[in-house]
Structures are given as structure tokens and as C-alpha cells.
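Case study B.
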Amino acid sequence: MWKKVFQWLDERLGLNDLYKAVLDRPEPKGNWWNTLGSASLFLFLLQGATGIFLSVYYTPSPDHAYDSITYIMNEVTFGWLIRGIHHWGATLMVLIVFIHMLRVFVTASYKYPREMTWLIGIGLLLATLGMGFTGYLLPWNQKAFWATTVGTQLAGTVPFIGEFILKALRGGVDLSALTLQRFFAAHIWVLPAALAGLIGVHLFLIIKHGESEFPTKED
Amino acid sequence: MTGSHHISRRDFVKLTTAALGTIMGAAVGLPAIGFLIDPALKSGGKDAWISIGKLEDMPLGAPHPFSFTRTRVNGWERTATNYGGFVLRRSENPQDILILSGRCTHLACQVNWREDAQVYICPCHDAKFNLEGEVLDGPPPRPLDRFEEFQTDEEGILLIHVKEG
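Model:
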């Protein structure tokens, strides 16, 4: 019975081919450093899931942002756990993505035919850092406020267009409700959408080209 | 491999991945369910005796409107809710009192007493209740709710017992 159902679905969705291409593809003799990309993907999904859960209670308004997070931490069942995972997962994700990049650099895996995978990876690193930067403001506590003050001020030191960048980031001259709102929008809509799209292409390219062998002495 | 205790490396990896995945999924997934349904698990049930006015100021035989406000903390915000109702003194006896909630039993609009027609009328769907709160006309499924528990204190002030759901 189940075999028939699976066969019916497989004929139409190509489940077996998909499984072979994604999870059963030939790999070079690898080691644990080769698992960092998968680890980054896992963290992205975990951050996505816990982030969606947090958005059930969080409110991006200067009046209530801090209160809503206090509520999540102290009142909601397992709120501390969900936020804790999101908090530490964010730090871990930046770390893992960065080490993943170092590994690719050290093993020269960015060379032909994988240049585009590398370039997209740069986009993924920048988007991940952007997630960290925008997410840091959301608790709206002293640390968040002043970190964003400093961060946006840094961006404002760019010659000629610095003031424009600063105003665009902050949504005005000052750090305000507008800043919180646009950081929130970037954090839950713009950057995750960019990440998801780039990850899709990144994965497609990895499946298309396969993973690179580690260089040998002759290389 | 049938009959042997060995499993292939491939099967071992599959099994371990599935087992670890299930454990990690449960470790995050189960708390997440509690996280989502948390407000439904909280018990709000506070109760209080509310003063609704001096008994001697309330007329005999005609509904006397009253209202009071209760505040409660929902999440990170304090919400004030208005409640209204009517006191009907049937006689001088301080126990012979009917206290009706003004909340229509259909969809919770506030009903008004119409002196000329001697009915409570709900503005939302034209439901009509008689002096005793029984349904005369319209969609309400049951009579107006009553405040069954009430008392008069030494100073002649009427108090009702309010339970918050």
C-alpha cells in the first residue's frame, strides 16, 4: 500500500532522484571541515524557526519592545529557551559561516568551476552579518541602542555619501522608532528572503559541481 | 546480512542521523508547542467583590443601570474592560433583587433598557429581553446572565461578586 503511494508520488515528484542528488551524491574523501556548510544551513533553519516563534510575542515598538522581551523571558512557557536558542544560534551562525569560508579558502575550493559558489557565499556571509547587526537592536536595551548608534555612525563616516547612508539606515537623523521598525523589517523579511534565495543557488551549485577534492602535494 | 548482528556503515549512519534528528527535533519542537499555546494555559481567574452603589438610591420596580471597570495585565499591557448591568429591586427586601449583566448573550453587545416598551434592546441585532432578562425576540441563545452572588454591607452599599474567566 505505502509502496504504491510512494511510487505514485515518486513518478510525479522524482523523490528518488532528489534523494540521490541531495543526500546520496558521491563525495570525495572528506573530513569534518566539510560539514560546516551543512552546519550553517542547519543553523539558518533553526534561526528561522525560533525567529518565527519569537515574532508571536515580540513587538517592534520603542514603547513595548523591551517589555515584550521581558515577557518572553519571564512569563511565556519555554520563552527563555526559544530566545536563548535564537540568541546563541546567531552567534554560532556567524562563527560557523566564517570558519566555513576559511575552510574553502584554505583548501582552494573557490577555483574553477566554483567561482560563482564563492561569490554567492560572500553574499551569504554579508547577509548573515546583516542579520546579526539588525537583530542586535531589537531588544531595545541600552546595549542594543548604543551598539546601533555606533554602528550607524561608523557607516556615516563614508566620504561624500556618509550622511545619506546614515539617514537611510536610521530612517532619519536620530535613532528612533523608525530605526527599530526598519531594522525589524530587514531582520525578518529582507535579509531572510535574500539568504533563502542565495542559499538555494549555493546548494544548486554544490549539487551540480559536487564537492572539491582537497589539494594534494602535487597541486 | 540477515541473521548477523552487523549493520552496514551506511545503515548505521542513517539510523544515527534519524535518531539524533528526532531527539533534537523534539528538544526544540515540544517546548515550541508550549511556547505557542502558553496564553491558553494561563489561568486568569481572579475574583472580587465590586461595589455598584447605595441600595437606597436604587428605585423599586425599575431597572437601575450600573457599570464598573476592571483592569488586567495582558502580556506587557494593562487592559481596561468596562462591564455594565442593571439592578432590579423587586421589593424593599434587600434579598429580593435581580442583578442582570448588560452583555447580550448573542454576541456580547451592551443592551439598553427601553422604558416605553419595558424591554431590554440589544442595538446590534434587535434582540429583546423582558424585565427578568428572558429572551422575547431575536437571536440570543439564552437569557441575560445574572450576578447570583451579591450582598449589602453595613453602610447599605450593594456589592456583587465578579469572577474573571
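Chain A touches chain B through 20 residues (CB under 8 Å). The remaining cases will be described in the next quarterly update.
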